[in-house]
Every structure is written in structure tokens, then in C-alpha cells.
């Protein structure tokens, strides 16, 4: 028998001293445990299924594993998991092995959890190289094929590969061997399905493993073994997820004929490494390359191939102002330029070495220099336009980007939507991103309804993690948050892929990192160091977000949700950061150049990156601070690169070419001033202002008007040096989205309150009527229960019990036809037969139950299960009935208990009397039978009377005893049901507690939302001082019939999705979050149809009935929108935009402002849901900012070597002249 596997127990026999700790995994051939060996060493032990002592089918896995162990036990290699011993204990094969850290599948899932496509390419190639060396050793020196190469069998020990699990290993005979089954169909080579093995079978599996771990997609996707078999043998592998240059290499590894594959696994990996290298390009004189129709040089590069030029020109050309702007439209039309070109070759031959071409092949496309490009092979032509490709970065590609190629042709329209990527750095950037998400949620219900807006937060603070709060709609998801925590100084000196950081770090800065590093803590150089350390993750995340812009899907979805239409499919990236801190202040310039580089890499040749930055106040009277010194240094560095005083060049990773850029990092820079101090509550208005401005820019028509006004001024008055903008805004809003959100939360809470209430007086009568009907239908009345047991007795006896009893007693009469003496022994024999049927009275404590008692007991068990189900159903029914819910359920349980008590109380006296009769009858019967054997004159006289009494008692006793049995069973049924009532109440109270917890969660979400209303003033109904009051007033006006209709509709959704409210309440951890989401979604949709849809302008005039109050409020709003940051010197030009709802009321508002302020230059813009004043200084010289003034420079100068202000020292910074 197999060894008993229980945690903390020791193994028997030869492995005594090995203690089981925990099971690591279980498969088809056995299970693996983590074990503590003698001396405290940790090992892995595999327990193989099957009994080697038995010669049956179940022993085959163990026999196969034992044979494989004999083949591989002498192999020793650093990349092969070492086998320490194997034993057979009680017929079970037990293998002791080296304990690994994890396998490649664990590493792959870890990368996916971080938002990556798969394992980064450089890292994966290192693993593949080591696995290939181990597999080739087995093949070349021992003629063994592993035959089970898959991610779960490639283990990691200190980030080095260990090939393991040789249960299927086969020795080759010549160049092939037979296979007996057991291979994993997903990774198996075609020949294994035909029953034989070649020297190249493991290579085939390794090629599949590489594609899966790199891209997340396998080349064969069959859903079952038969489909996989057919695909492996006859199908073409789907390699579209792979980077283009890897496809030919993997394609050869997946050749159907083993001899057509690579000579070895090592050759396969070497070819993959070569495919990722950039080509050797002869330097040539750079000449400007123009996008057709632009008239401006957009990229410098060597003269490319004619086909490359024509493809790039065609794909980069926009539709111009004449485009329709319709999403998904083909700008070239059916006879456009793309369709007039000769398509490139469908594919390269199976093997083309770098620098070579096959017969008739077209030269590979060349890409502009300085972009880290490489040779790219055209993919297969489709049935529509020919496929064009552009270079991709050498490492960390994602499968989708590699297959999509360059950016789509430009499309423009008269709408407002465009792709936007917001990269928020540090605490301040993260808070802006959170407020932006809040604005989106308040307006559209969820951020995923506008997928054209992507958010990515990077922070060095280790305490900033993904919040596990499904009830918080603005919590960051794992995809949106990148933790870039710092490490110890030794970490940066030991990383092979990291370029030397001492070249740019301030002297000695690396050794000032604490032993347990936390956030950057205001040191800008540490923020930049964190970017270098986590560059691969951050760059990968940026690339994944940019991928979403390569199709029209996000814009089409956003258009469907908002109706705003297309403005452009050209993306705009935003970098949001506080310049006074270490994280944002240290990263912002490098992140901007990284964004520009990645956008260019996919074909956006004129990338647009905007900066939104926050600086502390520069008060000459206040003490100088490190925050102000940091801001001065950051602005100085920004001024340096905006002025193009030196070319940006940085190598973040040894495996990638440096990022170089001669242009300014930002197309536009906005600077906002934070209030003094570090209290987040004080800075919230400024943070909310920035978030609201971003929301208006990306998701309202006002953003387009502001952009156009800004461009007009800049074109008319070009800046002579680096400039920025600063702005302020103030909203007069009818906060319909906010009122709707508040009302939704409060309505959901009240719904839960109604469900969990206690008042049930008004429910008693209808529940009583319903219970009476159910009592009859479910046969719970006494007569029905009595008939169940009576029928059970009839069924057991196969006739009426009275006839059976009479049949046993009647022979006593026939034996004394003349009334002679009755035989006492005969009477006793009849009594014993009757007692076997019905038993003695309960007081006699009969040891053996009678046959009918057994029958009744069996039927009792069956009936109790049935009626308990009926009672539970009746108790739970009202949970699912609107207007009843928990109060109704409790009232039903109460009335069920009362009915049961009444039934028991009415039967107990009957039971007492009947029990007394049974005991009396039995006692008289025993005495009467005893008197039959008496002698004497008096006995002779009484014998005849005794004989008659015996017969009567023998006839009556079994009847009464059976009646008592049945009555006891009926009472037991009712008592059992009554005993269950407390359990029903406990379950109802559990439901009440679960719903109360959900109520509290909604309350906390409401508190968080109520604290943020953004910069401005709300226009609320008369008598309402805040959002909650407005929501309450609105909810008070809902009609009872509407509430009932909502509850009924909601119940249908609850039943369909969760199979009932009770199921939700009893599994709150599993279903609670989804239920809250359903409740809020349905409540919002219901209330949206009831809430006033008037625009803010109409509400504004309705709420301003007194003369003069409207003008005063508008003037106040205009003053409040004044930018807080005041530049030094002359007041710059100011742009004022007033966003108003379209329509007569909006026009009336604009006219009111222009009448009250005739000298104000103001542009009106459509803004459906707000009245908003936006004031901006669109062109402020950076040198005019107070944060670059004398007091700020003094704070900068006071920051010595202990706290260096600059993020890097390898650039000769030129401080701005103010």
C-alpha cells in the first residue's frame, strides 16, 4: 500500500528522519512534497503513483518512471536537477531530489500579474539557453530525449534553470525510439503522436515553451487532445504573437519533419538571440525625411529602401482637414495608394540567416538610424491591403505590437476624443490621477467606459500598493500602478543589465541609500535611480499602453459611451509630477523622453508630450527649504532641455541602444503652485484643478476650444525661449453626476435598510394566508402526516394492519369452538407474534424494536428530510420577495413556529392518554393470560370470562400500540421542525449582518466621495446645502410604485446572476463585491431616468430668482478662476474661456457675462454638464516663474553635497537667467 502522506509526519523505512512539510504539487504520475531531511536540509520528494509489487495496469507509471531513473541517474550537469536517491517502500517508488525555488510557469504568472505580456525577452533567452544546454547534453552524450519539456518542468534555482521530471525520458536507438504514451499533448512533437521519438523532439517542445512564455500565446490552441494531435501533425503554427524576426526561427523549430529543425536546441536559442540584434548599417549622410503634406522635417535617418520609403510615406500621411473623422474608415478608399502598390513577399524561406536573402526575396526594410532598429521581415499579406512593418525595439516586445506594425494613418474629425496616456509620477502625480479617475467615474460611471484615456502611476513609495477594494471605483488596478521602490546600494553595483550609475549620480550618493530603502524622500537623484532600476518594467508598461492606440477600438468604445466623436487618432501623452519631491522631480524629464521614443518607435513621428507640474510657493519671507531648492533645480533642467542646449542621450539598459533626442522633451508645459505646507487637504483644491483641467481637455468640447485658442496665440506671438503656462478654473455646476452618484449610494443603502428592517406588523396577515395555503399544499397538516405513516405500515404489511392483527388472534377462537378451556400457551404465542409487530409499551424498555417500529422509523427519516426542505423553503421564500425580504422571512419563521407549537400542544394530551391506555391494556392482558392457567373452583368459574377478555385485549392492544407508534412519529416530525426554527433565524441574522456590512461599505464610499467636489461651487435645489441633502430631496420624491418596480426588476437580476439573495448573504466574501456592483449599477440606471436632466444653465437661472444675484455669482466665479501662480514682471496675456451648456440658457449666460464685463476678452465653449470659467496664461517665460527667482536660487544654493539638488551630474547645466 502507498506511503501515508500527512504533513509533519516522518517517512518510514530507509527514509526515516525525512519529515513531510507541505505538498508542492500533484500530477498524473504522482505528487511532490517539500521535505525536511536529517540535518534540517530541505528537499523535494516525489511519490510516484502505482505499486511496483503488483503486475497490473496501475503499476505502469511507476515502472516507466523507474526505468527512466535508471537512464538518467548518472547524468550530472549544473542545469539538470540533481537526483539524490530513490527508494521503493511498500511497492511505491519515492525519489529524493534537489529543492528548487519555483518553475518557469510561476515566473510567467508573476510577470502577467505585473501587467507584462510574458517573461521579458532577455531574461527568457537566458533561461532558454541554459535549458538547451542541459537538453543537448542528454541528447548528444547520453542519447536521451526528455519528452516532457514544458514550463512546469523547467525549474529555477537562484534564477538559473534546472531541467527536471524525467519520467518519460527515452533512450534513442540510432536516430529514433518508440514512445509508449504519457506525453503532454500541448508541447509534444508530431512524431510522438505517431509512436516514435527523434533527436529533435525536445527542440520542438522548447520552441513552443519559448513562444508561450514570451507572448502568452501558444502556436497550437486546440481545446482537446484530438484537436491538438491534428494541429501538431497537419496544422500551421500560429506565430502572429511573436516578434516578426523570431517567427522564422521558431517556425523552423516547429517543422513537421524532425530533420528540418535546427541541429540542436542550442542552435535554436542562438538563432533567437541573433534575430534580436540590430543590423550593421553603414553610416551615411543624414538627410531630412518629410511626412507628405506636412512640409516639415520630422525624422533624420539614412536613405532607406524605396519600398520602405513608400510604405512609411503612405502610412504616415494623414487625411487632412478633409477627412470625415469617422472611426474605422479607410482614409485611402478602395483605390487608395496602398492598393496600388505591389505587396511584399508573403514570407521568408524557412531559414534565412542574418544578412542573407532567399531566392527572389525582397531586401529587408531599413529603419531610421538612432532608433535602435533592426531588420524586419514582412509578414504574410492579407486579403486587403498589403502588410507593412516598421522596426520594433530589440527587447521587451509584446506580441500584439509586433504584429500590428507601425501607427495607423492619421484620422481627424470634428469631435473631441483622442488617445491620451497620463503618466503620473510620485505622490502628487498619483493624487491627480486619482482625482481624474474620480471625475471620469462621476460622469460616466466607470473608467473603462472611456478606454482612450490610459493612466499609469509610478511611485517609489513601497507603501503604495494596489488597493484591494472592489467597492472603490477609483482605486488603481495592477495595470495602472508600477512600484519602483529603491534597493540597497550593492544592488546597483551587481546588476549586469544596468549601465554604470556612478557616471551620472552625484558623487557618493549611491552610498547614502539607507539599509532599508523606502521612497526617494526628496532626493531627485534617487528618483532617477529608481527609474533606471525599474526601466524594463516601466518601459514595458508604457509600450503596452501605446499598443492600445494602434487600433480604433478604444476610440470607438469611448465614442459609443460618450457621443463625443473623433478629434484625432494621434495620441497625446501627459507627464504629471510634483517637482519638489524626489520621485517626480527625478524622473519627469527621462520619462518624457522615454514616451517620445516609444511613440516614435511605432510610427508617431511627431510625438506630443505635455507636462503638468506642481511647485512649492517661493515666498522671500519664508525659510528656505529643500523642496524649493529641488523645484529650482528641476525647472533649471527643464529649461536646459526645452532650450535644446544639449542633446538628450541616456542608456537605461545595456541590452538596448541609448535613447537620443535633440528636440525639447515637452510640447507644452503647465505649472501650478501648491499651498505652503505638506497637508494633503490644503493642496487638494490645486490637485483637483489640474485633474478637472485634464478631464476637460480629454473628454469635453471645451478642451478643443482651449487648444485652438492656445495655438492661435502661440502662432501669432512665438516664444523666444522656453515658456510654460499656468491656469485656474472655477465651476458653477449643477452637479447632476455627483447628485446621481450620491443618490445612487444612498438609494442602495436605503434599499438594504428596507431589506433588513424589523417591522413586520403589516406583513402578518398576508404571510398567515400564504402559510395556510403552503401547509396544505406541502401536506404538513396532522392528517397528512398521519396518513404518510399509516401508508408506510400498510405497505410493510401489504394489507390493513387490523386484518393482520385479527388473523393472528382468530385461531384462538377456532381452537375453542364450544367455549372450552383456552390454552394459555397458545395465547402467549399469539402475543409474542403481535409484540414482534408492534412491540411492548414504552415503559417496558424493550431491547429489540418491533418490525413496524423499524418501518415507521425509516419512513420518519425520509419524511423529515422532505418536510425540513419544505420548512426551509418557506422560511427563505420571503428573502427573495420584494416588500417582504428579511422582515417577511422572520415573520414567516415566527408563524411557522407558532403553528408547530400549536400542533404539538394539541397532540401531546392525546399522546398521554393513549400511552396510558396502552400500558393499562398490556398489563391487563398479561394478567388475563396468567389467569388462564389457574386451577380451583373459582378459577374454573372465571375461566370463560378470562378467555373472552384475553381475546378482546389481544385484538385491541396492537391497534392501540400501533396508534401510539404513529402518534409518536407525528409528534417527532413537528418537534424536529420546531427545533430547526432557531437555525432558520440564525441564517436570517447572518443575512442581516452581511447586508449590514454592505451598507457600511457603501457608507464609507459615500464619505470618500462627499469629501471631493472639485474647484467650484455647486448649484443645488432650494434648501439643500450639500450633495447629500440634494440626493435626499430627490429620493424623497420617488413614488412607492416606482420603488416596488425597481425591487422587482432587481430581484430578477439577482436570481439570474446569483440564484437568489440568500445565496449572496451566505457567501459574502465570494459574492458580496459583485452583488454591490450589481445593486449600484441597477440603482444608477433607475435613478438616472428619474433625476432632472436640465442642463446647469437652466438650473442656474431657476435658482437665481432675485435680481442681481446671477451677475454677482458669475463675477465671483470669474475671480476665483484666476491662476494662483503669479509670474514676475509684466502681466502676461490671458486667455479666458467660459464653458457653458449649448442652448438658449447657455447663450443667455454668456450674454450676461459680456454685459456685466464688457472689457473682458472671453471665448465661449460648449460644455454639456458644467458652467466653467477657465483662465490661462498661455505663454509665460520659464525665467519669469518665482520658483526660478532669487529666493528659490538661494534655497538651491543652500543644498550642499549632502542633499544634491540635481538629478544627474553628467550634464553641464546652464542655470536660467531671470
How is this structure best described in words?
With 1218 residues, the chain is of the alpha/beta class. Among the domains are: 1-99, Phosphorylase Kinase, domain 1, CATH 3.30.200.20; 102-274, Transferase(Phosphotransferase), domain 1; 420-728, Tubulin/FtsZ, GTPase domain (Rossmann fold, 3-Layer(aba) Sandwich), CATH 3.40.50.1440; 778-815 and 824-932 and 945-968, no CATH class; 1096-1186, no CATH class. Helices cover 47% and strands 12% of the residues. The protein is built from 35 helices and 27 strands. Strands 17-16-15-18-19-22 form a six-stranded parallel sheet, sandwiched between helices. The protein has a five-stranded antiparallel sheet with strand order 1-2-3-5-4, with helices on one face. The longest helix is centred in the last third of the chain and has 74 residues, at 937-1010. The N and C termini lie far apart (88 Å). Mean pLDDT is 82; it is low at 280-405. This is non-specific serine/threonine protein kinase. One of its GO terms (molecular function) is protein serine/threonine kinase activity. Keywords: ATP-binding, Kinase, Nucleotide-binding, Transferase. It is an enzyme of class 2 (transferase). Pfam families: Pkinase, Tubulin_2.
CATH topology of the domain at 420-728: Rossmann fold
Q: Uncertain segments of ≥5 residues (pLDDT<50)?
A: 280-405
Residue fraction in strands:
5-15%
Q: What's the multimeric state?
A: single chain
Could you name the CATH class of the domain at 420-728? Alpha Beta
Cα distance, first to last residue?
88 Å
- CA-based shape: flat
Question: Which secondary-structure class do the elements indicate?
Answer: alpha/beta
CATH superfamily of the domain at 420-728: Tubulin/FtsZ, GTPase domain
Largest sheet, strands/sense/barrel: 6 strands, parallel
Enzyme class: transferase
EC number: 2.7.11.1
Organism: Frigoriglobus tundricola
Pfam families: Pkinase, Tubulin_2
Amino acid at each position: 500500500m502507498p506511503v501515508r502522506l500527512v504533513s509533519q509526519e516522518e517517512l518510514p523505512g530507509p527514509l526515516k528522519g525525512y519529515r513531510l512539510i507541505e505538498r508542492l504539487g500533484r500530477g498524473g504520475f504522482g505528487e511532490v512534497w517539500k521535505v525536511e531531511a536529517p540535518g534540517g536540509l530541505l528537499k523535494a520528494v516525489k511519490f510516484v503513483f502505482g505499486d511496483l509489487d503488483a503486475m497490473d495496469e496501475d503499476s505502469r507509471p511507476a515502472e516507466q518512471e523507474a526505468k527512466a531513473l535508471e537512464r538518467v541517474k548518472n547524468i550530472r550537469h549544473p542545469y539538470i536537477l540533481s537526483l539524490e536517491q530513490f527508494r521503493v517502500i511498500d511497492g511505491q517508488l519515492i525519489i529524493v531530489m534537489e529543492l528548487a525555488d519555483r518553475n518557469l510557469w510561476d515566473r510567467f504568472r508573476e510577470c502577467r500579474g505585473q501587467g507584462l505580456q510574458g517573461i521579458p525577452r532577455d531574461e527568457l533567452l537566458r533561461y532558454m539557453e541554459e535549458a538547451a544546454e542541459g537538453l543537448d547534453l542528454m541528447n548528444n552524450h547520453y542519447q536521451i530525449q526528455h519528452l516532457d519539456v514544458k514550463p512546469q518542468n523547467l525549474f529555477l534555482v537562484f534564477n538559473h534553470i534546472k531541467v527536471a521530471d524525467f519520467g518519460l525520458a527515452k533512450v534513442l536507438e540510432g536516430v529514433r525510439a518508440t514512445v509508449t504514451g504519457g506525453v503532454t499533448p500541448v508541447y509534444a512533437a508530431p512524431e510522438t503522436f505517431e509512436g516514435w521519438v527523434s533527436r529533435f523532439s525536445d527542440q520542438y517542445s522548447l520552441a513552443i515553451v519559448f513562444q508561450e512564455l514570451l507572448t502568452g500565446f501558444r502556436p497550437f490552441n486546440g481545446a482537446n487532445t484530438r484537436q491538438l494531435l491534428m494541429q501538431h501533425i497537419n496544422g500551421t503554427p500560429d506565430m502572429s504573437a511573436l516578434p516578426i524576426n523570431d517567427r522564422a526561427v521558431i517556425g523552423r523549430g516547429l517543422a513537421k519533419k524532425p530533420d528540418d529543425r535546427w541541429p540542436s536546441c542550442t542552435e535554436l536559442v542562438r538563432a533567437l538571440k541573433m534575430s534580436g540584434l540590430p543590423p550593421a548599417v553603414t553610416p551615411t549622410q543624414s538627410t531630412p525625411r518629410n511626412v507628405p503634406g506636412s512640409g516639415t522635417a520630422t525624422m533624420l535617418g539614412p536613405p532607406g529602401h524605396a519600398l520602405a520609403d513608400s510604405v512609411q510615406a503612405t502610412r504616415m500621411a494623414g487625411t487632412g482637414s478633409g477627412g470625415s473623422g469617422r472611426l474605422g474608415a479607410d482614409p485611402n478608399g478602395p483605390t487608395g495608394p496602398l492598393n496600388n502598390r505591389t505587396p511584399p513577399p508573403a514570407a521568408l524561406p524557412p531559414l534565412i540567416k542574418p544578412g542573407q536573402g532567399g531566392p527572389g526575396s525582397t531586401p529587408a526594410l531599413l529603419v531610421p538610424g538612432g532608433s535602435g532598429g533592426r531588420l524586419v521581415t514582412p509578414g504574410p499579406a492579407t486579403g486587403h491591403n498589403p502588410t507593412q512593418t516598421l522596426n520594433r525595439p530589440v527587447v521587451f516586445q509584446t506580441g500584439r505590437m509586433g504584429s500590428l506594425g507601425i501607427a495607423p494613418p492619421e484620422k481627424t474629425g470634428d469631435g473631441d476624443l483622442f488617445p491620451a496616456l497620463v503618466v503620473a509620477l510620485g505622490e502628487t502625480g498619483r493624487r491627480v490621477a486619482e482625482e481624474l479617475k474620480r471625475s471620469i467615474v462621476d460622469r460616466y460611471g466607470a473608467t473603462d467606459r472611456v478606454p482612450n484615456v490610459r493612466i499609469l502611476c509610478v511611485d517609489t513609495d513601497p507603501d503604495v500598493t494596489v488597493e484591494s477594494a472592489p467597492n472603490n471605483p477609483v482605486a488603481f488596478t495592477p495595470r495602472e500602478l508600477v512600484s519602483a521602490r529603491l534597493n540597497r546600494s550593492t544592488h546597483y553595483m551587481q546588476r549586469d543589465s544596468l549601465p554604470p550609475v556612478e557616471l551620472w549620480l552625484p558623487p557618493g550618493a549611491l552610498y547614502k541609500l539607507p539599509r532599508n530603502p523606502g521612497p526617494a524622500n526628496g532626493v531627485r537623484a534617487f528618483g532617477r535611480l529608481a527609474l533606471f532600476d525599474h526601466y524594463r518594467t516601466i518601459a514595458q508598461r508604457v509600450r503596452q499602453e501605446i499598443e492600445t492606440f494602434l487600433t480604433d477600438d478604444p476610440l470607438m468604445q469611448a465614442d459609443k459611451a460618450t457621443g463625443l466623436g473623433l478629434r484625432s487618432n494621434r495620441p497625446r501623452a501627459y507627464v504629471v509630477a510634483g517637482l519638489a519631491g524626489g520621485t517626480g522631480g527625478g524622473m519627469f524629464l527621462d520619462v518624457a523622453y522615454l514616451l517620445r521614443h516609444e511613440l516614435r518607435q511605432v510610427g508617431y513621428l511627431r510625438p506630443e508630450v505635455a507636462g503638468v507640474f506642481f511647485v512649492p510657493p517661493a515666498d522671500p519671507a519664508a525659510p528656505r527649504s529643500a523642496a524649493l531648492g529641488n523645484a529650482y533645480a528641476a525647472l533649471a533642467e527643464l529649461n536646459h532641455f526645452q532650450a535644446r542646449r544639449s542633446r538628450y542621450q541616456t542608456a537605461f539598459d545595456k541590452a538596448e541602444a541609448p535613447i537620443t533626442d535633440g528636440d525639447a522633451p515637452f510640447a507644452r508645459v503647465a505649472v501650478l503652485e501648491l499651498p505652503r505646507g505638506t497637508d494633503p487637504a490644503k493642496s487638494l483644491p490645486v490637485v483637483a484643478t489640474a485633474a478637472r483641467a485634464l478631464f476637460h481637455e480629454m473628454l469635453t468640447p471645451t478642451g478643443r476650444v482651449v487648444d485652438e485658442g492656445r495655438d492661435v496665440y502661440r502662432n501669432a506671438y512665438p516664444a523666444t525661449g522656453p515658456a510654460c503656462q499656468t491656469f485656474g478654473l472655477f465651476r458653477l455646476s449643477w452637479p447632476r453626476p455627483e447628485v446621481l452618484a450620491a443618490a445612487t449610494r444612498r438609494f442602495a443603502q436605503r434599499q438594504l435598510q428596507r431589506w433588513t428592517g424589523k417591522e413586520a406588523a403589516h406583513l402578518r396577515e398576508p404571510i398567515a394566508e400564504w402559510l395556510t395555503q403552503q401547509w396544505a399544499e406541502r401536506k404538513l397538516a396532522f392528517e397528512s402526516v398521519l396518513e404518510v405513516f399509516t401508508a408506510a405500515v400498510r405497505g410493510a404489511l401489504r394489507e390493513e394492519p387490523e386484518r393482520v392483527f385479527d388473523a393472528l388472534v382468530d385461531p384462538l377462537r377456532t381452537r375453542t369452538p364450544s367455549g372450552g378451556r383456552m390454552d394459555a400457551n397458545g395465547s402467549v404465542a399469539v402475543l409474542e407474534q403481535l409484540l414482534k409487530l408492534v412491540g411492548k409499551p414504552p415503559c417496558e424498555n424493550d431491547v429489540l424494536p418491533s418490525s413496524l417500529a423499524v418501518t415507521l422509523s425509516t419512513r420518519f427519516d425520509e419524511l423529515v428530510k422532505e418536510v425540513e426542505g419544505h420548512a426551509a423553503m418557506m422560511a427563505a421564500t420571503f428573502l427573495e420577495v420584494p416588500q417582504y425580504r428579511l422582515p417577511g422571512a422572520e415573520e414567516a419563521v415566527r408563524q411557522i413556529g407558532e403553528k408547530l407549537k400549536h400542533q404539538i400542544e394539541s397532540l401531546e394530551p392525546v399522546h398521554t392518554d393513549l400511552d396510558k391506555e396502552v400500558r393499562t391494556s398490556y398489563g391487563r392482558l398479561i394478567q388475563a393470560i396468567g389467569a388462564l392457567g389457574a386451577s380451583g373452583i373459582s378459577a374454573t368459574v372465571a375461566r370463560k370470562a378470562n378467555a373472552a377478555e384475553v381475546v378482546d385485549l389481544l385484538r385491541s392492544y396492537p391497534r392501540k400500540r400501533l396508534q401510539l407508534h404513529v402518534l409518536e412519529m407525528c409528534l417527532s416530525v413537528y418537534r424536529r421542525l420546531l427545533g430547526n426554527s432557531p437555525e432558520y433565524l440564525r441564517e436570517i441574522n447572518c443575512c442581516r449582518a452581511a447586508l449590514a456590512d454592505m451598507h457600511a461599505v457603501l457608507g464609507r464610499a459615500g464619505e470618500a466621495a462627499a469629501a471631493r467636489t472639485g474647484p467650484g461651487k455647486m448649484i443645488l435645489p432650494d434648501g439643500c446645502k450639500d450633495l447629500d441633502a440634494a440626493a435626499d430631496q430627490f429620493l424623497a420624491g420617488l413614488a412607492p410604485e416606482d420603488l416596488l418596480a425597481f425591487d422587482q426588476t432587481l430581484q430578477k437580476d439577482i436570481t439570474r446572476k446569483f440564484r437568489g439573495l440568500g445565496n449572496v448573504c451566505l457567501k459574502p466574501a465570494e459574492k458580496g463585491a459583485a452583488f454591490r456592483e450589481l445593486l449600484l449599477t441597477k440603482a444608477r440606471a433607475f435613478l438616472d431616468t428619474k433625476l432632472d436632466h436640465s442642463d446647469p444653465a437652466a438650473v442656474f437661472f431657476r435658482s437665481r430668482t432675485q435680481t442681481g444675484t446671477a451677475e454677482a455669482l458669475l463675477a465671483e466665479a470669474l475671480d476665483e478662476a484666476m491662476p494662483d501662480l503669479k509670474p514676475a514682471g509684466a502681466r502676461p496675456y490671458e486667455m479666458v474661456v467660459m464653458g457653458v451648456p449649448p442652448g438658449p440658457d447657455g447663450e443667455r449666460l454668456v450674454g450676461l457675462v459680456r454685459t456685466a464685463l464688457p472689457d473682458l476678452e472671453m471665448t465661449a465653449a460648449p460644455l454639456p454638464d458644467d458652467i466653467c470659467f477657465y483662465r490661462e496664461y498661455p505663454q509665460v517665460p520659464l525665467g519669469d516663474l518665482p520658483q526660478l527667482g532669487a529666493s528659490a536660487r538661494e534655497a538651491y544654493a543652500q543644498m550642499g553635497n549632502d542633499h544634491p539638488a540635481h538629478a544627474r551630474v553628467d550634464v553641464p547645466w546652464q542655470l536660467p537667467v531671470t
